Amino acid sequence: MRVHPELRRARGFQDELLARLGSNSTAYNRSVSTGGPDLFVVCKSCGSEVSPYITECPYCGSRLRKRAPKLDRDGRVTEKRRRVRSTPSLPRLRRGEIPGIRAEARPYASMLLVAAGVVGALLWRTTLVDESNLIVIGKPTGHWWRVFTAAFTYDNAGLAFAVLGTVALFGWLLERRHGPFPVLGLFLVGGVGGIAVTAVAYPFPIVLGGGGGALALLCAWSVPELLALRRGEELEADLIGALAIAVVVALMPLVDSNASWISDGVGVLAGLTIGMPLALSQPG
Hints:
The chain has helices at 5-21, 25-34, 108-124, 145-150, 157-178, 180-201, 211-230, 239-250, 252-255, 261-280, and strands at 41-42, 49-50, 70-71, 77-78, 136-137, 206-207. The radius of gyration is 38 Å and the shape is elongated. It is 53% helix and 4% strand. It starts with a helix and ends with a helix.
């Protein structure tokens, strides 16, 4: 039987290694198992011992591997090992780790304001509650609680989307800086206070929506950025984007006649007034 050259070379290497190690089979097994190259592989088709450096069995012609194996510097077969890449992740922000940024927590106040607005928008479209009990229609004498519920009621999907989206974004940003109570206070002053001023200003007011509260949150958030811009510092926030959102919310009375220009003005004034001491109290 003709012996394949690769097999003859492998067997010759085996004989040479046995001659160097002598009759000590333990040393031979240790050298093969711990550091020496693999002397043969077994063909799965015919069971013959063949060289590990060939791709086809010389006896039966079956395919052993797709390509010849790579060898390292010591002549050993190197197999590719899949590296499991760990996804990088940052730990939660700890208290006092970054000056001016509070420890990471869920924006519960912002979520509460948005949820209340969604509930008010849904109640407007149902018959569970009389619509006149949700908004301000005429002077709310004896029914001042309507001033509060009107700030969370929306009769227009566009108005609700613009206002609640602004509350969610800038309420979350403010809550990261100062906590939940300034967020709630700003919305109440800008939204509820704006509707109350509107009810007093008009002889027969019809008003709803929390546009004033949304603008109060936006303006309070922008005060530190405006102060930094005045000092000539480099800005990390997008004031142009914030200005575009403010314009959209402020112009909502053109889309819904029940939204109030006066409420928007009260919200801007409240945001700038309350936002100034909040910005000055921020460290760094």
